[in-house]
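Final report, section 2: Outcomes. Of the targets proposed, Insulinase family protein is the one most frequently requested by collaborating groups, and we therefore present its record in full.
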Amino acid sequence: MKKSIMALSTALMLGGVASAQKVVFEEYNLDNGMHVILHNDPSAPVVVTSVMYHVGSKDENPERTGFAHFFEHLLFEGTENIKRGEWMKIVSSNGGTNNANTSDDRTYYYEVFPSNNLELALWMESERLMHPVINQIGVDTQNEVVKEEKRTSFDNRPYGNILTVVKENMFKNHPYRWTTIGSMKDLDAATLEEFQAFNKKFYIPNNAVLVVAGDFEKNQAKEWIQKYFGPIKKGTAVTKQTFVEEPITQTIKATYQDTNIQIPMLVASYRTPSMKTRDARVLDFISSYLSDGKSSKLYKKIVDEKKMALQIGAVGFSQEDYGMYILYGLPMGTNTAADVLKEIDEEIVKIQTELISEKDFQKLQNKFDNNFVNANSNVEGIAENLATYYMLYGDINLINTEIELLHSITREEIRDVAKKYLNPNQRLLLDYIPSTEQAKN
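The predicted structure is given below as C-alpha cells.
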C-alpha cells in the first residue's frame, strides 16, 4: 500500500511538472540547410535571437588550439555592414543585450531585444554569418583580449589550471584533451588565412541552428528569417571525426605545481559516457547525491562532521562524446590527500553496494524536478535548451520529455552505474600542490 501511494504521488508530481513546463515549438529547414526553431511566448515583451554552431574546441587542429573560443570574440569585430566597434553600440542603443559562449562541442551567440527589434537581431546574426570581416587588426586585437582572459581565468588564478591538467591526463586521442581557451602559442603562430579558412569551414548555415524565442508574430518572423538567412549559400558539409578512447583500467597518477596556491588539493577524476546516454543521467544523480552542495554525503561527512577538509566538491562535465566527473578536496590540518580520498572511497563503495534510502532518492528527484523547472523558467534558457537539444542530442523534444527519463531512473541503476564507472582503477588521481619555488619564497 505504501509503495502504491508513493507511486501515485510521484506520478501526480511528474504530471504537474511536465504540464507546467510544456514548451511548444515549431521547426523547419531553410533551403541552405540552416535549421530554424520558433518558440512563441508573449508573456513578456522580449525576444531572444540565437544561433548555435556545431563547432567547438574538439574540431580544432591539435596545433591550432583555441580557434573556436577565439571566434567567439572575433565575430563581434564587425561585418561588411557593421563597422568595427559598432556591434555592442547598436545592441545597447536599441535596448538589447548580447553575449556568446564556447564549449568543447559548440559555439553559441545570442541577443535579447525588446520585441519590436526582432528584425534588427535577425539582420545582425545573418551579417555575422554572411559578411564577417576577418582581418589582421581584428585578429591582433582579439589575440590580446584572449591572452588577458587566459591570464586572469587560468594562469594567475588559484587552482586555475586544474581542468587543463585533468583533461590532458584523461584523454589521449580525443581533442577533449585540451581546454577550450587553447594555447596562446598556437594562436600566435596562426596566419590570417588559417582564421579565414576556419570561418569558411564551420560558420555555414548547414552547420547551425537558429532559434527565435519570445514575443513575436510567427509569420512575420518567418518572412524576415527567409529575407536575411535564406540568401546565404550552403557550405560544404562538415564531416565530424570520431575519436575513441581506450577504457581506463589502471589508476592514472599525476602531479601539478601551482605558484598561486598554499593549500594542496586532491583531485579524483572519472571518465564518463556521452551526455546523450542513460548512464550519464544516472551519473548526474550520483554526483548530486555525493557532492552537490553542503547537504551532500561527502560534504556533511568530511567537512561538517569529521572536519578533515576545508572544502569538498565536484564538477561534472557532460559533453557530446565523453564526460568527466571531477571530485576535489582541500585537506585541513594534519589530514592528507590520502586521508580525504579514503573517506571519499568509503562513500563510493556504499553507493556501489547498498541502495540509497527512499528518502534520499526522493530528495534527488525533487532536486532534478527543480532544476528542470529552472532551466526553462525564462526565454533565454528555453532558447539555449532548444538549440542544445537539437544540435547535441538530436532530439529537441527532450526539452519536454527529459524529466520523464530522469523519473524512470531507479535506485538499483544508481548502484549499478556507480559500480560500472566509479572504481579506483578507472580514475585519475591528481596531486595539485603549491609550487616548490613559491614555498622557498
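The first helix runs from residue 2 to 20.
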